[in-house]
Amino acid sequence: MTDTTSEARRRRTFAIISHPDAGKTTLTEKLLLFGGAIQMAGSVKSRKAARHATSDWMALEKERGISVTSSVMQFPYAERIVNLLDTPGHADFSEDTYRVLTAVDSALMVIDCAKGVEERTIKLMDVCRLRDTPIMTFINKLDREGRAPIELLDEVESVLKIPCAPITWPIGMGSRLKGVCHLALDEVHIYEPGRNFTRQDSTIFKGLDDPALADRIGFEVLGELREELELVQGASHPFDLDAYLAGRQTPVFFGSAVNNFGVQPLLDFFVEHAPSPRPRATTTRTVKPDEEMLSGFVFKIQANMDPMHRDRVAFLRVCSGRYDAGMKMQHVRTGKEVRIANALTFMASDREIVGTAYPGDVIGLHNHGTISIGDTFTAGEALSFTGIPNFAPELFRRARLKDPLKMKALQKGLAQLSEEGATQFFRPLMSNDLILGAVGVLQFDVVAYRLKDEYSVESAFENVGVVTARWVRCNDAKKLEEFREKNAMNLAIDAAGELVYLAPTRVNLQLTMERWPTITFAATREHA
Ligand code: G4P
Fold this sequence. Notes:
Blueprint: H1 3-9, E1 11-18, H2 24-34, H3 43-52, H4 57-67, E2 72-77, E3 80-85, H5 94-102, E4 106-112, H6 119-130, E5 135-140, H7 149-159, E6 164-166, E7 168-171, E8 179-182, E9 187-190, E10 204-206, H8 211-217, H9 219-235, H10 241-245, E11 250-254, H11 263-273, E12 280-281, E13 286-287, E14 295-303, E15 312-320, E16 323-324, E17 327-331, E18 336-340, E19 344-347, E20 350-353, E21 356-357, E22 362-367, E23 376-378, E24 389-391, E25 395-401, H12 407-420, E26 424-428, E27 435-438, H13 442-455, E28 459-463, E29 468-473, H14 477-486, E30 491-494, E31 499-503, H15 506-515, E32 520-522, E33 524-526
Parallel strand pairs: 1-3, 1-4, 4-5, 5-11, 6-11
Antiparallel strand pairs: 2-3, 7-8, 8-9, 9-10, 12-13, 14-15, 14-23, 15-22, 16-21, 17-18, 17-23, 19-20, 24-33, 25-27, 25-28, 26-27, 26-30, 29-31, 29-32, 30-31
Helix pairs in contact: 2-3, 8-9, 12-13
């Protein structure tokens, strides 16, 4: 087995998805603790506190400075290398979240046991489904009164439409929480609040028949547990590795992240069963992780993260081969060969220069405005990875200059910011307007600030009568031309040069789609 093959096989690259407040940050912190990546609880939390103050731009800037260090968290655990990719917490940056999900091999879904399946979880799950991403589920906050476990599984199955396979099962809840039963290992893990559990100091009973267990949790509770387990095992699905890997079943764990309870069984199971890097599609062929040639794609760009350096970093997910410091790569879109000597990785709070990286790893490339989201880098063959989406914006503004002589700078700024995915940028066919599109309203503040700060352009954004956008495609060139002529008023060109329909109302969009059945109106565009 080559070095690349064995290193790729031990990588586990994933992201945590959840509705805000379900416990993503807390769980991240516990996973890092188990992985030895941080020594003390609290360090991830304080970053999050900075992130909450988004109304103040300086805080936002600061947050960007900090969040890059936690963008990718790598730690070793049980002979594996775990890469946890952070997803931005603020809903306005959810487009970024979606792109991060294209760079992982699996996901971990956190659900609050009192709230059940919430709105953002549903959306994120839909994104995971686009690529059949395998998902494990952690039902959190067991130390509080929540809904009945069976009811929660039913909700996941009916709302998220994915069969559940419980791996652990709670013994009581809230003030009556006694522990969890590990169904796969036939173990009972006792809940002892206030203790920072690690494998060594948690109390584990083997099987339900140990008389000491009855002494510990009480005969009545044990009796109820036996009955409940019989019911659960009859009504739920047994774990099926293939179904999980195909995204058709989710193994479910119960616990309390803040009490460090139920987290270790999750992590042990995760490193054992979660997929290592999988083959990835390009426009010409499928790339396997154990190929010798390095390849990867950029899924995120963060600019000016460090006010001292004013740099931009492009995050490249390695898909095959091995990266070595100083090696040459081809930037496929531009056709240029570049030597990458100083790629970054982001362990804990330090930026480090990486020596080597393998499939599943993420490296940060210094970027001076030439790299765009979706770009492929390889050590040779001109490949282009597919599947990194641009989402149709739901909010639109017309950019207006305060100083009309700055038009060139404005256009350049908007073009670059849209390359990064900070905003989307449209030029109507019939006017000289510059229209910005965003998925969340905070994006406009960021764009205005950065235009001023980085391009010295003062701009104002005004409302414009557009409600949504659709990328227009048609195999029949004649039909497309006819459509273009008849609808020129509502058509624009995006930053990548593609034709887009800017709908003035939803009813208008509906009618136009009905009127032009041979035209495809796509709500996402893949980065070219
Ligand atoms: P998020 O990243 O998904 O938004 O959630 P986060 O981890 O920040 O958790 C949201 C809140 O839920 C936090 O409380 C956190 O302490 C709490 N929490 C997380 N896991 C558990 C758990 O297992 N049990 C209970 N009871 N609470 C949990 P907060 O009041 O917002 O913050 P803090 O003051 O506790 O830091």
